[in-house]
Structures are given as structure tokens and as C-alpha cells.
Amino acid sequence: MNVRVWLRLATILGSFVLTAPLAAQDIRPFDAGSLEKIVAAHKSRPFVVAFWSLTCPPCREELALLGDVFQGESARDLVLVSVDAPEESAAIATVLAQHRLAGVEAWVFADAFTERLRYAIDRQWQGELPRTYLHGADGTVQAVSGRLSPQKLRQWIERQTTSAKRS
Amino acid sequence: MNKYRTLILPVLLAAGLSAGAPVPAADSAHAGHGGGASAAEREKMWRAMLAKAPLSAGAAFDARGRLWLAAVKDGAVWVSHSEDRGESFSAPARVNAGAERIAADGENRPKILVTADGRVYVSWVQSLEQPFSGNVRFAVSRDDGRSFSAPLTVNDNRDVISHRFEALGVDGRGRIHLVWLDKRDQRGGKYTGAAIYRAVSSDKGASFAANEKIADHSCECCRLALAPDTDGTPVIFWRHVFGDNIRDHALARLDGKSPLIRVSRDDWAVDACPHHGPALSIGSDGVYHLAWFTGAPGRAGLYYSSTADRGGHFSAPMKFGDSEAQAAHPQVLALGRRVWLAWKEFDGRDAVVRGMRSADGGRSWSAPVTLATASGASDHPLLIADGARVYVSWFAAQEGYRLIDATGAMP
Fold this sequence. Notes:
Chain A is an alpha/beta fold.
């Protein structure tokens, strides 16, 4: 795999729309209405929503991949939602920083009733982690259970980039 | 519902608070997942974690029909018992004197087991400062749960790595078995999943023998299930990693000679943490009853199967529960030929414990019934029996602790 091409594609993906610089890291409380707000705020371009936890080893591998890919302007097209608790925000911020994701839009489950949150997010999701949603520019959403492979992410980015060129 | 039942959790919590457990100042050995966080941040997190009252507790009946609970608060396991099926409880006794960060998160919870001769065995996982690390801890009470021995760390590998998701059992000779998921074989290299290790105590919990490996390559964050066979030999059931990444289930009889047996062929290839362990119960007729969750595309959901010949043959897996309603965290319990299943669903508003029962060893089943609901966060339900009747033991944030008579609801 040609990593340089792939990173360049990620940058192209990120440059669809330029908006204001990201604010410093704050971990926002995620409730049953949050996903709707996230989708509304990001739907003008392709974006990725990744659910992860401090307690999940494969999540760290996925964060490493996302930290590699979503740098620079493409960072705005990534949303990370930790399914831990708000009192773990310091640990969440530390782990994000370790994976070069300090500036990325980050949320944390703010309702211990996680079934209610998952019901609002995706009824097909049984809680396995990581769980990642690839939101295409055309509104299609791909759900991925388990660590997102670099190949899958690259293919998706290429597809988004191709369709962006066509339109 | 009797109002006293809803008071049990607050009572446990209040007892924990009034005991005034000393909190060690800036003890980095307990600081949790914040590798790289400042000392002040670690201290804050440590205090926040201690202040949490997790809903995940252990429950068991003793031979006299008393209900025992092991709950976590203020960095300690607290043990209490009820003589009246959960209507009222004894004052909780603190198990570990020094505060520890105790894993209580659905897949991890304190375990409690009371022997016929009156010993109270308690095990739990102490979380350490690195992510995913922990030690398996054990203590025994020889005075009917009033006081406990100083806790032992059971894993003889003391690296700050994962020794977690423990299961506790006693065999036909009274020996105590602790079985857990252990990352010692990873040693910084490529190692799929975790290994399963066991330690045995032949002196009623005064000490444990050297750890022995049971199997390589279990899934690393799904709790184990353990149940005694009819001859007392422990049998374990767990989510294994077959090949590179197939997270299906395996069974092993811990007699030192039986092989690992693959139970499920769901072919769930996923590099994920399902956080979703299986359940096992062995009837007095020697039939193993098994329940598990798979997320395999096209067949995601809960499944039940049984084997009458210790894993030689299995019944065709039966899907149960509503996978559109997050059917999750199955429990199975057999009393002779009668078998109960219980699991959790979400109906769009409430968490729901559902159950069904078989009168013929798992061949045919009643329609599912709702056993209890919770309007907020809740633990996984547990199925426990007092020898004659089966109950659901369930903690919920709003409703407190409830012991629900599953035999009455599904006669």
C-alpha cells in the first residue's frame, strides 16, 4: 500500500469544505440526541464516527490508524465517541493525545443507560467495540464492527474522493 | 415490589460510606487508565473511580437458602446476606481492608461462593495503573461472613498486565478453582488474544498452588463461565479465538486430560471486544447447557445448545431473544431436566429481563416472558438457585436490588 498516496487522499477528503479551526480539546457529553446533531453538522462532506472505549485493546489499534490518517485538515472529518464515562475525560484526552488525535471532535457517553444510547445510535449494534460508521457524501452509512482495516478505510476514502471529483 | 428491596443498594452504599475507608494519597499504583496523565489528574480519576458505586455485584445462595451478595463501593468488596430472599440484608462486611480499584463493569464483578461447611469465598479483579491490567484477588471468611482473611493475589505472574475476568468454583473434593484470562504469554510479541490460566487451592483458601495454563488464545475481554460437572470437575466455557480471528466458543473439562472442544460455528471473524461472555450450567443428569452471543453477520444474536456427552455431540443451536431489541448477556441454569434462560433486552424505553423455561432438558421451550424492567442503567441479570427454585438477581440504578422468582414466573 502506498501510504503517501493514501495520506494525500485523506487530506483531499478533509479539504472538501474549509471551516474555522478546531477548538482546543474538550470532551462533549454524548446523549440520545447527540448523533443526530453530529450527522447534521457533518453531512455536507464524508465523515467517520468511531465509537471506542478505554477498556478495549483493538480500539487502541484503530485510534492509531485514525491518528495516522486524519491529520491536518482531514481531522475535521473524524468524530470520536468514547463509551466510557464523563469522569474518565482526563484519561480519554490522554489516550487521544497519545494517538495524535488531540484536536479531533471528541464525545463521551454521558448516560450510564448505555442501551438507551445504543438504541438511538443503531439498533443493530450489540455493543462490540470498536464500532465505526463511515458516512459517505451521498448519505450512505457503512457500519464496521471491530478494528477498521487500513485497506477498508483507504478504499472508502478513495471512493469518496472519486465521487467528489465527479460531482 | 416490596419497598425494602429498593433500599438494598442505598444501604450497601451508605455502609460503605460510613466505614470511612481511607483513600491513599496520590497512590499511582491505583491510578487507572491514565498512563501519561499528571499526578493530579491520576489522583482525581482514582477518587472518581472509588466514588462510583458500580451496579455489577456477585450473588449466590448458600446450602441453607441464604442469599449472599458481594458488591463494590469505596475501593472495597462488601459482603452481606439475606435470610428472607432479599427482603432484608445483614450489615455489609468489608472484605479488603486497603482500598483498591475493583473491576465491576458487567464482564467483571466480584464473585461469591459459600460452601456447605460455611466458608465464604470471594474473588475479584484489582485494576492496576496500566490500561487493561489487573490482578486476581481472593479472600475467605471462616466466621459466616463477619470478617475476611487478608486478600491473596492469585496470579503468580506479577507483571502489570491483564489477569482478569476470573471465574470461581469449588470441585467435588472441596478444592477452590480460580480461572482467568491472562496476557503473560504475550511478552511484547504478537500473541492472539489471551491465555486461560488456573490456580487451585487445596487448603480451603489459605494458599494457591502455582498457576497452570489451560488454553492459549481466548478472546481477551469476555468473561469466562464455569460450572461443576456431576463429578465435581469444573468445566469452563469461553469465547475463543480460532485461527487468526474467529471469535467463537470453546469448552473444556478441567480434569487435566480433556481437550478443548469447539462449541459454536458462528464464524464471527472480528477484531473487536464484544464484552459479551457466555453462560454454562450442568444439570444433575450431566447435560451441559450452553448460551452465548455472536455478532456474526447474518446470524447475530443469542444462542442455546446442549450436549449430553461432554461435548461429543451438540444440539443444533437455537436462537432466542429479540436481536432487534439488543438481546444480550444470556444466563442459563438447570435444575435436573428443568432449564431456565434469562437475558437482557431494551424495549425502546426500559431495560427488560426476559426469560424462558424448558421442562425437558432444553428440547422445547416456553414463550419468553418479561421478568423485570428497569428505567435506567442496570447490571447484567444473573440466574441463581437455592436448590429448589431459580431466581434472577439484578441490580439497577433506579430500582435498586431485586431478587425475582423465575420459578414462580415460569413454573
